[in-house]
Amino acid sequence: SRMMKSEPLELSPRRSAGVSFAASLSYNGIRHHFGSKQVLNGIDLVAEPGGILCLLGPSGSGKTTLLRIAAGIERQTDGRLYLNEQEIAGPDVFLPPEQRGVGLMFQDYALFPHMTLAENVAFGLTGLSSRAQKEAAGTALERVGLSARASQYPHMLSGGEQQRVALARALAPRPSVLLMDEPFSGLDSRLKDTVRSDTLQILRETRATAIVVTHDAEEAMRMADRIALLRDGRLVQVGTAGDLYRRPADLFAAGFFSELN
Ligand code: ADP
Questions:
Q1: What is the pLDDT along the chain (261 residues), one digit of tens a residue?
Q2: Alpha carbon of 37 to ligand 1 centroid (Å)
Q3: Ligand 1 centroid vs 62 CA: distance in angstroms?
Q4: What is the residue with the minimal CA distance to atom 13 of ligand 1?
Q5: What residues are in contact with ligand 1 under a 6 Å CB criterion?
Q6: What are the residue boundaries of the ABC transporter domain, all occurrences included (predicted)?
């Protein structure tokens, strides 16, 4: 297909703290509490460059907090966070979100209704000339197969197409790590499979490092290179889908995958 043959995106002139596309992100002894409530209890975990890491676990297990710590929206109580070799958050260091070069895509990926798709995608591209913004937005829309519709408005698109625009918007600044929180939860089940496989293909083609939060074991199995299974702020098991499915670390892990076949 056309998308398979296209060249990798040019690196944006805007680099974040010297980090290039597809970085590794490492959590090192991360603890976090809200008031007296301990929600992360010593997390050691690496998102490999260009890989898709799924954070899987039941509601309240700490997945979103781990994502927010990576984004710099939340500062961990203890432990260190590294982007490649660079410490970006720790007891003495805190790089603000806009300097981390991480992209965010949350479940409420709402597009601005009064802006065209191109304008929506260009919106987050600060620090670029308007010409460079247009180019980057155009490239990102092409990447998700929607460049012909750049001047249309969100309401003219299906839910799945809107989700692809949101992905284009997240990828346009060339984030070193893309963080996705339950990215498909807003889609009906009929659409979900298609959008998910489209997203997977786009992530592969852009060679993005991605951390994807989900509570759905099947979704993690389909998407992840590696799955980190969480329970009550602790890692139960980290491994490939095959590892977790065939050799679950404990009854909790086994239970999580037991409904799958
Ligand atoms: P998950 O994404 O796995 O559902 P979260 O990371 O959202 O889990 O939440 C982990 C725990 O932290 C939950 O018990 C949640 O209630 C609590 N929590 C999350 N954010 C806050 C906050 N801002 N203040 C207090 N408690 C919070």
A1: 344 443 344 444 333 333 346 899 999 999 999 999 999 999 999 999 999 999 999 999 999 999 999 999 999 999 999 999 999 999 999 999 989 989 888 766 679 999 999 999 998 787 888 899 999 999 999 989 999 999 999 999 988 899 899 999 988 888 889 999 998 887 888 888 888 998 999 888 888 899 999 999 999 999 999 999 999 999 999 999 999 999 999 999 999 887 775
A2: 9
A3: 6
A4: 60
A5: 34, 37, 39, 57, 59-65
A6: 25-257
Cα(55) to centroid(ligand 1), Å: 14
Query: Ligand 1 center to residue 152 CA distance, Å?
Result: 38
Helix residue ranges, H only, the chain:
2-5, 63-71, 117-122, 130-143, 159-171, 189-206, 217-223, 241-246, 251-257
CB atoms within 10 A of CB 78: 13
Burial 99-128 (b: 16+ CB within 10 A, else e): ebbbbbbbeebebeeeebbbbbbbebbeeb
Tell how far the Cα of 217 is from the centroid of ligand 1, in angstroms.
20
Q: In whole angstroms, give the CA distance from residue 23 to residue 27.
A: 13
Task: Please write down the HEC assignment for all residues of 87-133.
Answer: EEEECCEECCHHHCCEEEECCCCCCCCCCCHHHHHHCCCCCCCHHHH
pTM of the model: 0.88
Q: Are 181 and 106 in contact (CB under 8 A)?
A: yes
Mutate to test the pocket of ligand 1, among 31, 34, 38, 234 (most ligand atoms within 8 A of CB): 34
